[in-house]
Write the structure tokens for this entry.
Amino acid sequence: FRIGLVQAITPPGQQLTQAITIAQTIAAQAPLGVQATLASARLARTQGSEAALARLLPDLMPIMASEDVKEGIQSFAERRPAKFQGH
């Protein structure tokens, strides 16, 4: 299934290194946000973008009330890396 996205173009032999770098960047993000993004992408793929859009607000509300959102705002204000806990 082609969706027309390219994350990076790497020289031959550097694909694994680049993939690990991308994975580390994703892993450093808020787990609830990453999980919701993956769920939304899967829903859009299987049921269409309208179904994913319909779930966006209901899925976003509990995330916005999470401790991770507070940590994200606090870490941004303090100019430090966030320490997300997944709740």
Notes: The chain has a mean pLDDT of 91. The chain has one domain: 17-77.
